[in-house]
Recover the amino acids of this structure.
């Protein structure tokens, strides 16, 4: 008999960072280190608890389905009908306590959570008086529930070891022969398995949590660096030009009455410098807004993995020519966004050469007539075609060899 909740999905950490580099919201369900799969820290928000509650009940209900075997064993142990009914009621009480105990643990500290766990463990222990030795199988639920104490691995370890010791004592008291015949000796093995799963998932969640924090920091530092770069570009473009414009404007103001011709010349220089500064600013902003193909490949791989789509993508963008990388990045971004949102695909293939990029999937997308072509992401086919034409490339759509949609952009050889 195994315990379902230990296999329940882990609360996934999520975070959002705005384009200006500040965090709009903290990572949802950000437990402290040494956490457990379903535990929520004492200071959790309502959203954190809502996520934890949903994941817990999904796994807990699954675990209780395995307890049907316990009920069957109780009703076939040869005792009286009255004993069977009483045992079933006692089991129902313990199952209810197990299922709803987390409601007493949300936002509680470690001591209070341990007290709740001890109460449920006491109820499960009293089952020995009603159900008999078969009650040891319900103690697996206590091992799973120990994950809700959170923050301390040693608590779960002590709980698991205590349960195993109690199960061995029950086996000794009933006789090794009876314990082997009734399968009671197998219960400690399952309990250790449940405890090991608890520790494994806890470690995994801790690693994911640390990775999430690192990713947040990397993103923040990248935004800070990009701000600094853009500030340097603006200073280089505008600093000198605007200084000269200011000086020439002041000079023209002084000369306008004494030397109108010289003042006119100075104002013509001001106009020229202003236009040059404006052109430089436009070039700087255009470069700032260019999409990066390497970054888009990383983003596409992450998005497809998150959507459980098998993806074959180039490792890097080295194969693409420099003058089409920005275009390829936009096409890749829009194509992958469309696949994730609408294609219902299970497989994606991205092919990259020096002058061409092809995005294919095996989803439900079909080639639409030009007049009814659906938008891809935010820009749509029209926006992508305009970008392609700007660099002498051609955007085509069709049916992929994989059976789904094909999006290809190609620039003529030079």
């Amino acid at each position: 008999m195994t315990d379902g909740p230990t296999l329940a999905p882990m609360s996934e950490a999520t975070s959002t960072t705005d384009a200006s580099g500040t965090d709009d919201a903290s990572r949802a369900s950000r437990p402290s280190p040494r956490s457990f799969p379903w535990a929520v820290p004492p200071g959790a928000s309502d959203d954190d608890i809502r996520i934890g509650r949903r994941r817990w009940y999904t796994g807990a209900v699954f675990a209780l389905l395995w307890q049907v075997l316990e009920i069957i064993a109780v009703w076939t142990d040869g005792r009286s009908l009255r004993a069977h009914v009483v045992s079933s009621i006692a089991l129902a009480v313990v199952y209810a306590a197990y299922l709803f105990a987390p409601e007493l643990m949300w936002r509680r500290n470690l001591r209070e959570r341990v007290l709740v766990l001890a109460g449920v463990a006491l109820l499960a222990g009293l089952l020995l008086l009603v159900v008999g030795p078969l009650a040891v199988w319900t103690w697996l639920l206590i091992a799973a529930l120990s994950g809700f104490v959170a923050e301390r691995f040693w608590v779960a370890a002590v709980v698991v070891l205590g349960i195993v010791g109690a199960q061995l004592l029950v086996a000794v008291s009933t006789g090794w022969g009876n314990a082997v015949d009734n399968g009671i000796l197998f219960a400690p093995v399952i309990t250790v398995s449940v405890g090991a799963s608890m520790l494994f998932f806890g470690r995994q969640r801790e690693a994911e949590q640390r990775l999430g924090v690192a990713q947040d920091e990397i993103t923040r530092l990248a935004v800070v660096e990009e701000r600094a770069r853009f500030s340097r570009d603006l200073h280089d473009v505008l600093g000198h030009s605007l200084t000269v414009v200011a000086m020439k404007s002041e000079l023209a103001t002084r000369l306008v009455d004494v030397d109108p011709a010289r003042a006119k010349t100075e104002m013509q220089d001001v106009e020229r410098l202003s236009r040059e500064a404006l052109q430089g600013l436009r070039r700087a902003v255009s470069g700032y807004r260019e999409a990066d193909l390497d970054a888009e490949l990383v983003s596409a791989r992450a998005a497809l993995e998150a959507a459980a789509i098998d993806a074959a993508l180039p490792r890097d963008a080295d194969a693409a020519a420099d003058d089409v990388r920005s275009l390829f990045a936009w096409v890749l971004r829009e194509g992958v966004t469309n696949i994730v949102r609408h294609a219902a695909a299970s497989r994606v293939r991205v092919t990259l050469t020096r002058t061409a990029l092809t995005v294919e999937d095996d989803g439900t997308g079909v080639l639409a007539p030009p007049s009814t072509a659906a938008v891809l992401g935010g820009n749509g086919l029209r926006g992508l075609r305009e970008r392609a034409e700007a660099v002498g490339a051609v955007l085509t759509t069709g049916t992929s060899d994989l059976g789904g949609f094909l999006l290809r952009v190609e620039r003529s050889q030079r």
User: Anything to note?
Assistant: The longest helix spans residues 186-255. The beta strands are 14-17, 23-28, 310-312, 347-352, 356-361, 393-399, 405-411.
